[in-house]
Amino acid sequence: MISVVILGAGNVGTHLFKAFNKAENIIVNQWFSRKTKPIDLYKNTVEVTDNLSSLKEADVYVLAVSDDVISNLSSKLTFENRLVVHTSGSVGIHDLDKKHRRGVFYPLQTFSKEADMDFSNVPICIEAMDKNDFNTLKLLAESIGSTSYKVSTEQRSSLHLAAVFANNFTNQLYRIAHEITESKSVEFDVLKPLILETAKKIQTMSPYMAQTGPAKRNDKKTIKKHLKLLEGSHHKDIYELLTASIQHTHGRKKL
Amino acid sequence: MISVVILGAGNVGTHLFKAFNKAENIIVNQWFSRKTKPIDLYKNTVEVTDNLSSLKEADVYVLAVSDDVISNLSSKLTFENRLVVHTSGSVGIHDLDKKHRRGVFYPLQTFSKEADMDFSNVPICIEAMDKNDFNTLKLLAESIGSTSYKVSTEQRSSLHLAAVFANNFTNQLYRIAHEITESKSVEFDVLKPLILETAKKIQTMSPYMAQTGPAKRNDKKTIKKHLKLLEGSHHKDIYELLTASIQHTHGRKKL
């Protein structure tokens, strides 16, 4: 049995609480939040507190708080030499106060407030200063059905950066596709199966192999037609830059 | 029963043949290709020909050929006043020879040669000059399990353009994410669940509502950190442009 105290009641904290609470070999001893009101509804299931100095003993303290406050919160903890982890993609392990045994438990996924998260779809990137602590975190991840990866701080930073491309920037391309279809009164729904298939394709094929389209083919006629159709210099700039990027990747163009 | 002759044996032609052949109320009378060798294996199932002047009568002639040859091929057909459609996203309906009853049957999906295509995931954009012909094409689409959409030539062009953003450009962002992880010896696999979830999210939520991340939050510290991490001006340019694009969409920045 692994005992846990969660600190933070945002998206990540709440999803982790639900997953930990459901797991057979994890017990959540306490849930801390500066403001307990949003999590009062869980009071029958777990002890909720807003008092840092009354934290109970536990095997792992999970700091699911925003990047800016991780360091400070870890210093304020009144105990020492216990396993304290944060859940951030871009904060170093050494940002945690050195009085603790330190670790990172970074779930690499996009969390919505509404839908329950199936943690079998959430890879967890783990880092720890101590081998036993690493194994505890690995067991914690596996207990909620996640696949765990051993990832250093430097590697985690690059994953966090890559995730911005794969998630935020990709989503912005969906948004632009939405703007383009909307401007001609076409339902965005028509594009949804393509979007899903594009993401599915690279589950078994490298993005390099999966590439198709006018940029890869160097189909100048279609590219010219598209640039003419695009309204606003902003969409044009993105079209040109990503076309050049594809041509660079596929050996058509030097950048 | 709808009778069909398919012209062209590329990806789209082959997938359409398989789907038509499987459908209960469609009969493929003939399959034409300039080079019949790659489709010789279907000879027991369908009549294969490389002779344009021996084409059989059918309700619909489907030109699944590259954009450049559609117009010319349609002129070369020796009959008149029959329903001839092309399958292209970016070629106008009027590019077909006017001696025919003309139409478009554009499947908006990414086709791999290897995997069989489930046409219930393939929206078909339909256009026709004649109402009866439109209904025939609609029935043809429904008979292979597809959802059909009535889409004008202008709308189809914008869908084709939007698909470049949603498919080719998105895939290039996956590629860049792959390059970033690879450069730090991290498995690209860690990102795959995130990529799938990002695509799934917008099936029920607008891309606008689905957006998260440092650009949307205007988290300057993280953006600065990411730009420092990026190797090569090329990835930096894309990061900056798409960050600006997100901030423009979410009201943080004038472009």
UniProtKB/TrEMBL annotation, chains A, B:
Residues 4-86 form the Pyrroline-5-carboxylate reductase catalytic N-terminal domain. It comes from the Bacteria. Signal peptide: none annotated. InterPro entries: 6-PGluconate_DH-like_C_sf, DUF2520, NAD(P)-bd_dom_sf, P5C_Rdtase_cat_N, TM1727-like_C_sf. Residues 122-245 form the DUF2520 domain. SUPFAM superfamilies: 6-phosphogluconate dehydrogenase C-terminal domain-like (SSF48179), NAD(P)-binding Rossmann-fold domains (SSF51735). Pfam families: DUF2520, F420_oxidored. PANTHER family: CONSERVED HYPOTHETICAL ALANINE AND LEUCINE RICH PROTEIN. This is DUF2520 domain-containing protein. It comes from Yeosuana aromativorans.
